[in-house]
Amino acid sequence: MILERCLGSMLLVLSMLSNVLGAFVGVNIGTDVSSMPPASDVVAIVKAHQITHIRLYDADPHMLKALAGSGIEVTVGVTNEEVLGIGESASAAAAWINKNVAAYMPSTNITAIAVGSEVLTSVPHAAPVLVTAMNNLHKALVAADLNFQVKVSTPQSMDIIPKPFPPSTATFNSSWNSTIYQLLQFLKNTNSYYMLNAYPYYGYTNGNGIFPIDYALFKPLPSVKQIVDPNTLFHYNSMFDAMVDATYYSMDALNFSVIPIVVTETGWPWQGGSNEPDATVENAETFINKLIQRVSNNSGPPSQPTIPINTYIYELFNEDKRPGPISEKNWGLLFTNGTAVFPLSLGGPSQITGNSTAVFCVAKDDASEDKLRDGLNWACGQGQANCSAIQSGQPCYLPNNIKNHASYAYNDYYQKMHTVGGTCDFDGTATTTTIDPILIRARVESLCLLQHLVQ
């Protein structure tokens, strides 16, 4: 009994400490990328951008090994395909923990396991064993003496809340009540948290014009257009806050309170098709940077103002191999060479514009096209620059001329290699500059953050 009280007090202190230390903004890392960098490069990019929390959709051994010693807090994923087996077999759960968690700790700082991804709405046939799978994993963590370091939860979408506004009357879809009740009981018993995927982009685009886009983008609304819950009179300054509060009220409707919410996915696509006019760089930049400001103020939504909203942005890189509309492939914050799609600040007060060194390697104005072509071929070949973004149809293909392509390849090589002796010369066709990158609009449907400003 004394031990239980001590552990309970310790958990309370840790919870209070996390609030004092402030909320975090992490990033999801998907792998449906045609030119995915090696795991060591991904970790270097994450560290360069001062990202302290990441979520993986699986338990990739290369990533988990590369993250060793980094201190980065890692959420590993049980894939939807693995949920059934783990739910049906405690030994399978134990094997999964031993292989994908215990084998890497404590060097790799694994702090959570996300069991599946939106299981109730994406793979409903696995729903009957979802909570059993979570219990099996938790028991395996207990057996490995890792249950205090690693929490178990499962991300769910807003789709299981049919009417999220007004938040005060929101409830979970009643057809899932039995499973959700068991889920919430598990989270309460294990001092875990509810994982929520909340996308104001979809809330707005699927909302038939009910809410203004400024509400989805964290922009202030005029006094006559304030969004107010008629039952509580709470003012909602953003759809993001309303979505989080709708989830708190939905839990409360099942008599569960103060289970904290972590937003495991949110973001805004920066490019879309002709029928997706709101997927723009400007909107994505606004949403992401205002989201970071919102989360960083360490407050919760109106109904839970003292519980910060820890949040993971979707996502680090564009997953260009994903099926679906153009927007589905364009949620990435960074290109695979570490360049930011738009200016943002993920881990500190300084703004990241795609090059933390503020020195760029670009093609000279007077270089001949033949020599530039030779330099480009060397950089993309022997030099191992990541040139996928300047291929036809990719984000940096336009403007389609040898100087722009060479500058992109030269700078990619230089940023990777200058600290170990790589130079910016390329047979006299390149030079360094301290001019910041700019966003060049080649045409409406093709936007690229190029590495130079040379006319």
From TrEMBL:
Residues 1-22 form the signal peptide. It is found in: Cell membrane. Its EC number is 3.2.1.39. Residues 359-450 form the X8 domain. It is a lipid-anchor; GPI-anchor. InterPro entries: GH (IPR017853), Glyco_hydro_17 (IPR000490), Glyco_hydro_17_plant (IPR044965), X8 (IPR012946). Its main location: membrane. It catalyses: Hydrolysis of (1->3)-beta-D-glucosidic linkages in (1->3)-beta-D-glucans. One of its GO terms (biological process) is defense response. Keywords: Cell membrane, Disulfide bond, Glycoprotein, Glycosidase, GPI-anchor, Hydrolase, Lipoprotein, Membrane, Plant defense, Signal. SMART domains: X8 (SM00768). One of its GO terms (molecular function) is glucan endo-1,3-beta-D-glucosidase activity. GO terms for cellular component: plasma membrane; plasmodesma; side of membrane. Belongs to the glycosyl hydrolase 17 family. This is glucan endo-1,3-beta-D-glucosidase.
